[in-house]
Task: inverse folding
């Protein structure tokens, strides 16, 4: 299974999905014009990954800003990750936010309340 | 056949709704099937409700964030406008001061020129007087006896003597002008004014003839 490594741009986030290490990272800005076009390859990758995951998977969200449609895509990613603990694998989501950035912290709490995966809010 | 890319982020929810509608429109109303589908629809609805809640909150926060950014931009624009007005006022004040300084500088330069001219004039007068005295003595001691001996003139014939002394007296003013002009020229060379600036000290009238 191939890794995904994408450089961040002014509109799309940096992506580093490492299937060999079990480390997944999404960071930066996520305001693509067509969110589903950007996130669909990541969904497909995750569908494959959850079939044969590493025993421990670390998912890090280090986002600066994201639009509403990206929030739906983030939810879909988190929902796919719910399948890991369901199948007896460990998964940990780390949601990073800047000190004083209450918006990003609150968004993390919203996501945390909705999914059944270990979820940590980490102040940078 | 490759899987078709969904058109929007709610593709799955649309599928769920389409499926529910197709069952409603169908003729098979088996209780177990209906129950299973209803359960799936409820589950999907619950997910969608959760998504809608989160997205609404995210959207509200984004809106507030944009409002804050907008307010900040407006405030920055106001600050910039104030700074621009302040700079314009200061620039006008600087221009006024520059003009005042230029006027004062011109006045000062004119005064300096006048002072220099006066000083040089005094110096030239002194030099001219010294030259006249020297000429007078030269005339009395050497020139007059020489002329008298050449033309065999007696002591009582004072016309030549008068002519010589008169010439010396007449030469006083031209010598004064000439000395002043040369001294001024030296001063001008030392100060080295820009070429664009018109010279304030001119050669005295008749200086060319005298040189």
Result:
């Amino acid at each position: 299974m191939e890794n995904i490594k994408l450089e961040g741009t002014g509109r799309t986030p940096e992506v580093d999905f490492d299937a060999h290490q079990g480390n997944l990272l999404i960071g930066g800005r996520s305001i693509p014009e067509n969110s589903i076009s950007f996130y669909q390859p990541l969904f497909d990758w995750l569908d494959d990954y959850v079939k044969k995951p590493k025993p421990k998977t670390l998912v890090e969200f280090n986002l600066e800003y994201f639009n509403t449609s990206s929030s739906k895509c983030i939810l879909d990613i988190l929902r796919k990750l719910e399948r890991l603990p369901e199948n007896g694998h460990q998964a940990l989501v780390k949601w990073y936010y800047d000190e004083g950035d209450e918006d990003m912290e609150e968004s993390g709490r919203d996501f945390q309340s909705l999914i059944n995966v270990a979820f940590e809010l980490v102040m940078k | 056949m490759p899987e078709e890319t969904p058109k929007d982020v709610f593709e799955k929810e649309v599928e769920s709704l389409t499926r529910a509608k197709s069952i409603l429109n169908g003729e098979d109303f088996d209780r177990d099937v209906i129950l299973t589908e209803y359960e799936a629809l409820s589950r999907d609805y619950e997910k969608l409700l959760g998504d809608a809640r989160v997205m609404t909150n995210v959207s509200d926060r984004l809106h507030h964030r944009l409002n804050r950014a907008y307010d900040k931009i407006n405030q920055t624009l106001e600050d910039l406008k104030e700074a621009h007005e302040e700079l314009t006022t200061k620039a006008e004040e600087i221009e006024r001061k520059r003009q005042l300084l230029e006027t004062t500088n011109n006045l000062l330069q004119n005064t300096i020129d006048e002072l220099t001219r006066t000083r040089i004039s005094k110096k030239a007068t002194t030099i001219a007087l010294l030259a006249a005295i020297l000429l007078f003595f030269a005339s009395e001691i050497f020139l007059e006896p020489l002329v008298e001996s050449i033309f065999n003139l007696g002591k009582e014939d004072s016309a030549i003597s008068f002519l010589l002394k008169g010439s010396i007296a007449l030469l006083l003013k031209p010598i004064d002008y000439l000395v002043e002009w040369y001294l001024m020229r030296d001063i001008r060379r030392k100060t080295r004014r820009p070429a664009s600036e018109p010279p304030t000290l001119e050669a005295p009238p008749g200086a060319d003839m005298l040189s």
Q: What stands out?
A: The mean pLDDT of chain A is 95. The interface with chain B takes residues 35-37, 39-40, 65-69, 71-73, 75-76, 79, 103, 106-107, 110-111, 114 of chain A (CB under 8 Å).
